[in-house]
Amino acid sequence: MASKRTIELVQATVPALQAHGLALTTHFYTRLFTHEPELKNIFNLGNQAGGKQQQALAQAVLAYAQHIENPAALAPVASRIAHKHASIGIHAGHYPIVGRHLLASIREVLGAAATDEIIAAWGEAYGELADVLIAAEAELYRASATEPGGWNGWREFVVERKEAESELITSFYLRPADGGALPPFVPGQFVSLVLYIPELGYEQIRQYSLSEAPNTGYFRISVKREGNDPQGVVSNRLHDAVNAGDRVRLSPPYGDFYLDEERDTPVVLVSGGVGLTPMISMLNALAQTKRRAIFVHGARNGRVHALKGHVEQLAAEHAHVEHVVFYDAPDATDVAGRDYHFEGVVDLDRVRDRVELADADYYLCGPLPFMMKQRDTLLSWGVPAGRVHYEVFGPDQIVSAPQG
Question: Count H helices, E strands: the chain?
Fold first, then answer.
C-alpha cells in the first residue's frame, strides 16, 4: 500500500490527468519508442497508429490515480492486464524501463506542476503497481510452465489446415512443431501469435481466442480479415501469406474470460461478428455436458456468418443446445427461418422469453458498444452483475468495466 502522503499527491494530480492525460500518454509512447525501438516488436503498432492505445493508457492512468486509495477496485482490470502481459512475454525487467519513461513524460508534459515531490510520489505508486503485476504474471508463467504440455515464451506450431468459414473469417488448425502434447485450457481463453510484418519492419503480436473445445490435440483460431485497418496487419497476413505447412509461434493459453465449468446452471452466449470465436469454444464444451446452452449471434448476413453449419449441427444433435441468429442486412439469398431468425442487430428484448433463465450465466463478446448494449439490457432485467461476463476486443478491454 502506498504511503498516505503518496496517495494524497497522486490524487492531487487527477485534475491534470483529466486535462492532459492523452497528451501525456502520446508523449510517453513517442519517447518510449524513440529510446527503446526494440519494444515495437511487443507493442501493437496498429493501436498506436489509430490512437487507441494512447487513449486507453490515459484512462488507465487516470483510473489508477482515482482509485489509489482502494486498489482492490481495480483488481479485475489488473487481472486482465496480467494475462495479456504474460501472453506477449512482458517480464520484470520491462517495468523499470516503462517507469523511467512514464515519470520523465509526466515531468516533460506537466512542466512546473510536476514537482520533485509529485514525481517521487508517482514513482512510488508506479512501483507498487508494478510489483502487483510482476507477481501476478510470475504466477501465470509458473502455472503455464508446469501444466502437462505447457511452456513459457514462444513455441513453434505447424499450420495443419486452413479452412474458410465465411467470406471474412478463416480458421487455422495448429499443432506443435515438436510433436509434443498441448496443455489444457478453459473455453474462452486466447493465445498470442507473433508474425514478422515486412511493411513495418517489426514483429507484431495479436491475441486470438481459441475457437475449439480443449483436448482436441490441436489449437484452432478463427481469424477475421480486417481490410485496411492498421490493427489488422497480422490477421491480414495470416489470410494472405500463411498456409498449410507453414510455421507460426504461439504463447500458451491465457485470459480470465472463460466458461465457469464448475456450475451446472444454464448458459446464454451472446456474440457479434468475430466475437463468436470464444463462444464456439464454450458451446462445443457445453455440448458435451447436459447444461442448457443458448447461443445468440449477430452477423451482417449469411456471407459473413462463420461456423453457421457447425452451430446448426450442434443444435440438431443436442436437445439442450439452442441457437438464435440475427442478421442486420440479410442478402436476397438469406431465408428468414432457415438462415436467420430475426432481422436487425442483436436485441435481447426480442428473445427475452427464450434467454431470461433462472440462475443463468451470460457470456458476451464483441465490439465495445455491442457489449455495453447487451450488458445494459441484462442488468435492466434484474440479472445480477455477477452473472454477466464479457470480453472486449483491443485496448478497450484494459479500462472497460470489470467482469462479473
Answer: 13, 12
